[in-house]
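Subject: Protein record for review, amino acid sequence with backbone structure tokens
Why sent: The fold of this protein is of interest and is recorded here as tokens.
Notation: Tokens come from a learned vocabulary of local backbone shapes, not from coordinates.
Attached in line: The record itself begins immediately under this heading.
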Amino acid sequence: MKNSLPNTSLALCFTLFTVMAMAQAPARTVVHLTSAQIDSAGSSKRTPDKPGRLLATGPAGERYLIVVRAAEGAAESHEQYDDVAVVRAGHGVLRTGSKLEGAALSGKAPEREWLGGTITKPTEKRIAAGDFLVIPAGLAHQYIPDKGDSLVYVTIKVRQADSKTQKK
């Protein structure tokens, strides 16, 4: 049996180079990732506390991520970013609610978010491959894959306009 590690490493290096090049691209270019590039980034090694990988950064600083959750994720709430997600594989539940109790503050504005804790009075929605989700800034949420399954999704972090700079 052949050792596929060199091919996997080569593919991962190519993907990382492509992502870094796109992150430095001028604002008026198309961000294009093939399905193979996304899958390669999604299959790279991760830890339960860091299930996501940065795919690219957009012209306004928005982050494009691939996330693979094999276990229940921590509850979270983002201060100024909507999460726009497309589920690529798996089945599970998206738990949401307006209040997150016992969470720890992480980061600095505008990336500041609350992590951990418990969502009070949660609502749960079944999610599966092909689903499109928009989770507004400030809404507590938590991804929970079905037992024995993984949820794989691409998320775009979209910053909410600053009320001081919005046009009237």
Remarks:
- The chain has one domain: 5-159.
- The radius of gyration is 17 Å.
- DSSP finds two helices and 13 strands in the chain.
- The domain at 5-159 is CATH 2.60.120.10 (Jelly Rolls).
